[in-house]
Amino acid sequence: MNYNLGKIYHGFKLHREEKVEEINSIARVFIHEKTGAKLLHMENDDSNKVFAIGFKTPPSDDTGVAHILEHSVLCGSRKFPTKEPFVELIKGSLNTFLNAMTFSDKTIYPLASKNEKDFFNLMDVYLDAVFYPNIYNTKEILMQEGWHYELENAEDELTYKGVVYNEMKGAFSSPDGVLMRGIQKSLFEHNTYGYESGGDPEFIPDLTEEEFLGFHSKYYHPSNSYIFLYGDGNLDERLAFINDNYLNNFEKKDIDAEILPEKPFKEMKEVVTEYSISNEDNEDEKTFMALNFVTGECTNDELYISLSVLEYLLLETQGAPLKQAILDANLGKDVYGSFDNGILQPVFSIVLKNSDASKKEEFKNVVFDTLKSLVKNGIDKKLIEACINITEFKLREADFQGMPKGLFYYMTAMDSWLHDGDPLIHLKYEKNMEKIKKALTSNYFEQLIEKYILNNNHSSLIVLAPKRGLADEKDKKLRTGLMEYKENLSVEEIQDIINETKSLINRQNTPDPEEILETIPVLSIDDIDEKVEELGVIEEDASGVKLLHHDAFTSKIAYLDFMFDSRTIAQEDISYLSLLTTLLGKINTKTYSYVDLSNEILINTGGIYFKNEVYGDSKDVLRYSTYLEGHCSVVVDRVPRALEILADIIKNTSFEDKKRIRELIRVLISRIEMKLMDRGHQVATTRLGAYFSPAYEYIEKTSGYEYYKFLKEIENNFDDRIDTVILKFQAIMNKVFNKNSLLVAVTGKDEEVNAVKKNISEILEVLSDEEVQINKYGFHEENKNEGMLTPSNVQYVAKGYNYKKLGYEYTGKLLVLKTIIGMDYLWNKVRVQGGAYGAFANIVRSGNFMFASYRDPNIKETLKTYDNAAKYLDNFTTTDREMLKYIIGTISELDMQLTPSMAGDAAVSYYIRRISKVDRQQERKEVLSTTVKDINNFSKLVADVMKMNYIVVLGNDGKIKENKDVFKNLENVFN
């Protein structure tokens, strides 16, 4: 259908239409005549359709009202009055993406689906949620999702509870998170960016119901909305649906959501603040520092991309000049940068970790002196070329690792659109890339440094210092305050809180009536493809080496993995192997310095890196495969050069630069510490799995907490240990890089495969051809039941075992069990009632079965919930319609949208783990045929797994010590 400028289509007037070559789409900008709602449509042949609606939501305090509202509108609406429509959609739709997100200045509600009927169903639920939520007639929604006083009995301790409250307690446990929040606060004293849109736990309980409802009433209106449609499908039908069912019910409203720019500072602002470490921790080398600069406005399309390139150039590449100068000055152990271009006035930050507050002035001086030197002497042109090339490669590749392309494009458009800018300006990147390429023959980046950093007073220096026991101090203050508040309440007021608590619990415990659940639209079984998607590999020969070819269109990009069986390495050396993989490509070779090597990689490829991979066998619980993998993504005509570089790393890596090795170990430790605080559920489940799974034990020793301790031991004794460590590296390289243990995987078409075959001799010539010996690794099962102590404000609670070891077998029906337990039982018990940010079940083909929670205020209560899961399953009953939803939700997860590179990785994984297409088809058949009785029958399996009582809890040291009877061992993580 052709669309004409100025014409009105179902209430939407077309203001603009143009082809955006960079994303192969026709873009149309509409304005809804009656309400002023803005709509951007991107037409293309992508079957993964995206809808999103967003609102400008500038907070004016730290109560987190925007964040709490984002949660709350998805808790029932006019047409869909179930308590959790969002969960019902996850259970029963074929969505490829479904979420909501709160930013500093906006809240967005995006979804994606490849199924047309499903797409309209999801769109309907989301539009009804944002415009007609049940928050106005159900005060328990704010209590549940935001905060409430919790008191079940008059003699109990009064506490705060709420999903967002606990989510943000977890977020504020991470020093990196505290620092990022402090940066915005320091730079924006008089506009919305100085407030915490997610909510500061200290101020969340200040939010009143009146303010909460007023925020929705003010900002959640079509006149303040930014609507997005992407992909194939009939635009006319979509516009008619949105207009007739929603926008036509509203009148235009004048909404004051303007965000005024912060006025420039006259001088740099300095801020000193604190974060918590445990009482046993040493405060030395635990300070964070950040230099931050406000840089223009987000509607400046050239700056938007050029400062991103500059940040990568100065702080992210191997040997990045500013990062290297800071490390060379021994100011700290890790340096990174960030460029936040998603706000009105983008912020450029230089972050130093593991330093001391006494080095503040030296940090500032080194940064400014280094940048002045770069301006005076010029930036290495080869480095500029490398950074421009990798930026361009990533833009053209458009591989967002599972995020729908349309969602990425919407978020990019919103960066300018929200502030009355051109929504297409950042998507049309070709013009600005051409401007930036002039930096190869000019002082383009040097001028940016001078203007936006050296001569920019709108800046701040933040010092975030550690303080022992700060979390306990704050907790004690909170508990004391609540105790005093309770003491001043009358008997009637206490009873009111008890009644409200019981009312909330009663609502949470009461299932939605069947007629209410039936308001949520459901697909039919006929909407599901009974056949699995083809995800296989073709075995081919490449000069005597087995090559696995996953056939996929990749726009002439070859995704390559050179996979070396690492069981040639002795079991006691696997942690050394893991460290080696981190170093390869980041240290000198005999041919290149690590800086020059990085430049060569970025100029010629989309990246080269090495990684350890573990593949648990699908048939044998004790069997697993391990590989050291050299990965490369490269345009097909650069394959010969890419293989030359890979061969050089394999043959000529030099370990003589011990200072560089120490630097990289320190950075690695820093990044693992960040994971320990931000993603504790991953750490806890890996540690738990290592108790009973040989594959998980390997993962624990190569990337988990055990590996962290290994790295810390080397760092603490570096001078004494490094020579021995280097000998280990050399011995490992001699063994692992062997032609006879090599498997090559290529994702692409025949052209890409042939390019690899033609040039594989580059790799084979540098490999050993000796007979290989594959080691058999031992395993000793041990239930350690550890409490892992950190200064976090929350817990990550994990429990599980391997059901195959207990005599059970895998069936696809277990995946439906996973959906039911995760999206019904654990969601309600651990998140909704327990106040945790989340909980999940992980049940896999190899037999591993785990429950885990994250950002959880509880320990024993959550473990009790896990133990009661078997009883829940015993009594589980539901309608055929609800059972169908669980099955559809399970299929949706199985059919997750994969990019070509992800599909290639999955196909290779299936091959190594011995999962055939027949196995996958059988699994799908079992999912589709799952009954209520099948779910009931899993009760014994779950009971038996829980009876093994294998537990790991990572979290607040005080809380874990209060519950020490749960554990056999307590482990202080950072000491």
Can you describe this structure?
- Residues 464-714 form the Peptidase M16C associated domain.
- Pfam families: M16C_assoc, Peptidase_M16, Peptidase_M16_C, PreP_C.
- This is Insulinase family protein.
- GO terms for molecular function: metal ion binding; metalloendopeptidase activity.
- With 975 residues, the chain is an alpha+beta fold.
- Among the domains are: 14-259 and 501-517, Metalloenzyme, LuxS/M16 peptidase-like (Cytochrome Bc1 Complex, Chain A, domain 1), CATH 3.30.830; 269-467, 2-Layer Sandwich (Cytochrome Bc1 Complex, Chain A, domain 1), CATH 3.30.830.
- Strands 1, 2, 3, 4, 5, 6, 7, 8 and 11 form a 9-stranded mixed sheet that branches.
- A hairpin with a 5-residue loop joins strand 3 and strand 4.
- Helix 23 crosses helix 24 and helix 29 (813-833) crosses helix 34.
- The radius of gyration is 28 Å and the shape is globular.
